[in-house]
Amino acid sequence: MTFSLYADASRRARLTAHAALFVRLVLVVLLGFTLACSDSDDDDNSNPTPTTPNLDNLKADIAENYATLVHTSYLDSLQLASAMQTTIVAFVNNPNAETHAAAKEAWLAARVPYGQTESYRFYDGPIDDANGPEGALNAWPLDENYIDYVTGFPDTGIVNDPVNFPELTKELLRDLNEKDGEANISTGFHAIEFLLWGQDGFVDGPGQRSHVDFVLEDAAASNQDRRGQYLLLVTEMLIEDLQFLVGAWAPDQSGNYRETFVADGDEALRSMLLGIGSLSGAELAGERMAVALDTREQEDEHSCFSDNTHIDIIMNALGIKNVYLGRFETTSGVVHDGPGLDELMSFVDDTLNQEMLAQLDTVETACAAIPVPFDQAIRTESGRPIVQVAVDELRAQTTLIVSIAEALDITLNLEE
């Protein structure tokens, strides 16, 4: 009996041991299978596909970021223009070679951020809707003798006509801007440019207006006081117009344009693409470069008095790139960076997106390669082909922008 009980206990112990061994074997097999599956998954995910976000939410984020980018760049433009105003006031109060040079340098500096903002045009936004200030800010080409004297005509222009314009005021100059003709420009960056540099009749450099034109006691000039007053007035007007644009795009300001813009992500995208497509093609490649290339005329370049056209072109191209990437760097080096069209297109059609990213770099390189000054590049046999390359690359970029719009189910009707 004792033996039998011992045998039963021994048998039960062996069975228990076998069961435990079986369980361990099963666990080992399962663990191996799990690890194998894990390795397989790792192999499959060596190049994982990013999860597609909610595209409507992404569009809203892009619109919001664009609005911030626009506000930031207009604010940067205002700050540089305000610095320019300080130097111009100092120049008019004490006209000499040094204060004159400082005012011109400040004008050139102010053009850097403003040139990038031109990618926010062409969709009836605050800058160029029916009541927008674009025509008062940056209109060109400018008929010089509408404002002041030119070679051979010492008594022409508003400055030299106290009989018809006895009192110079901001209201008067706004009324006279583009009156009786688009070339009758009386305000804006290029009016200031002409008053600082004078007529550009020189092959090897910009206009050579002397500071003496503003020295009240100098008998060699005439209407110096009116010329200085005119310069102060148009500079003040430019500041006011930039302040308006900053306000139109300011965040957390009820009822302004920005509030309407960010409310509709799809419409915001259409406006963004229309803006950069129009600037890339008809405006920059066409009006600002191809026309001058065809005519070879100095008068057809954008900033002819200062010979700053090459910078205008580079900044316009950079403005297009800024919008696509959702990025802007202020002149003080502060970088604003957020979701741009590139992020959306990486999910919609990344092949097209990569083409556009490459083309943006190609355009940037082509524009930077244009010889300086632009008015000589459009005339010389060595310079003309380089300008033509930039024109062609801008037009190719415009074609890509239209394709991007189509991929997003947006129809763009761009001017040729």
Automatic annotation (TrEMBL):
Keywords: Signal. This is Imelysin-like domain-containing protein. Pfam families: Peptidase_M75. It comes from the Bacteria. Residues 71-400 form the Imelysin-like domain. It is found in: Cell envelope. The keyword RNA-binding does not apply. Its main location: other. CDD domains: Imelysin_IrpA-like (cd14657). GO terms for cellular component: cell envelope.
